[in-house]
TrEMBL record:
PANTHER family: ARGININE-BINDING EXTRACELLULAR PROTEIN ARTP, MEMBRANE-BOUND LYTIC MUREIN TRANSGLYCOSYLASE F
Record NCBIfam families: ectoine_ehuB (TIGR02995)
This protein's UniProt keywords: Signal
CDD domains in the cross-refs: PBP2_Ehub_like
InterPro entries registered for this protein in UniProt: Ectoine_EhuB, Solute-binding_3/MltF_N, TAT_signal
Domain Solute-binding protein family 3/N-terminal: 55-285
Identification of the protein by name: Ectoine/hydroxyectoine ABC transporter substrate-binding protein EhuB
Pfam families per record: SBP_bac_3
Gene3D superfamilies attached to this UniProt entry: Periplasmic binding protein-like II
Length: 299
């Protein structure tokens, strides 16, 4: 949650450098029907159409804790639960998940496969050229999964390089870029599917460290007898400390919906209800944020 990444171009994402073109095929294979095409109304009329239909389609990436289908077959996660509250306040009673790969979310959104991306997607300038974002509902630092006691003393990407540690991260994760910026050779990075595979790699001794978000790192090690997570830290991007923020994505034509969404989001932040919604998914008060999409898009 990741970074020059965008859904259809290249660059860092919270979690995704995955290409968008192939992802479109995945969407089609999933048999998702298209939503109605955009209108000529200035700022878009999607909110009115969603109210009339009574349902909003959410693009999710099946990633715990951001947006996933639980063991009971129910849609849940940080973004879907927040979407349920906000869209109900906007007059849309139901949400419907459209699961897909993370790298297909932006192409799928812009090709009308679903109405909103609800996957805790990081906001970055590359993505801001393709979609518009709500303000972030959370901010996130990085953390490492290491063996108990952190024997190599790894607390930053520079440490990983200096101590020649065996390094792993997830498919399409922004942490790939962060490690490369610190001087780690990209071809030497072990790429695994997700944080569970990363934990397994550390426990088995195949790598010294797995990098991910602070949230996913601390959650996945809770039941491990062999591994622990490091304290959260700020990665360096372009020579400066960088804090990521996750948000909802909308088609560029749908500013009316995005603006209405932001109004309700701000109310939830002010009342403290936002934290109550996100807390069950492992978020802490340190991950609540006043960052704006404008800031993260580069001004």
């Amino acid at each position: 949650m990741t970074r020059t990444v965008s859904g259809a171009v290249s660059g860092p994402t919270r979690r995704s450098l995955l290409a968008g073109v192939a992802a479109l095929g995945a969407l089609g294979a999933a048999g998702c029907s298209r939503v109605a095409t955009a209108s000529d109304v200035e700022g878009g009329d999607l909110l009115e159409r969603l109210r009339a239909a009574g349902v909003v389609r959410l693009g999710i990436a099946g990633e715990i804790p951001f947006g996933f289908i639980d063991k009971n077959g129910e849609l849940t996660g940080e973004a879907p639960e927040l979407a349920k509250v906000i869209f109900k306040r906007l007059g849309v009673d139901r949400v419907q998940p459209v699961p897909t790969e993370f790298g297909s979310l932006i192409p799928g959104l812009n090709s009308q496969q679903f109405d909103v991306v609800a996957a805790g997607m990081y906001v970055n300038p590359e993505r801001c050229e393709q979609v518009i974002f709500s303000d972030p509902d959370y901010q996130m630092l990085d953390a490492f999964i290491v063996r108990k006691g952190n024997p190599k003393g790894l607390h930053s990407y520079k440490d990983v390089v200096a101590k020649k540690a065996k390094f792993a991260t997830g498919t399409g994760y922004a942490e790939i870029q962060y490690a490369v910026e610190a001087g780690y050779k990209e071809s030497d990075i072990l790429i695994v599917p997700d944080q569970v595979a990363g934990l397994n790699a550390v426990e088995a001794g195949r790598v010294d460290v797995f990098a991910g978000t602070a949230l996913t790192a601390r959650e996945v090690v809770k039941k491990s007898a062999k591994a622990e997570s490091t304290k959260p830290f700020t990665p360096i991007v372009g020579g400066k400390p960088h804090v990521d923020g996750g948000a909802f994505a909308f088609r560029p034509t749908e500013t009316n919906l995005r603006d209405a969404f932001n109004v309700e989001l701000r109310k939830l932040k002010k009342s403290g209800e936002l934290f109550r919604i996100l807390r069950p998914f492992g978020f802490t008060k340190a991950e609540m944020t006043d960052l704006t999409a404008k800031e993260l898009c580069g001004g």
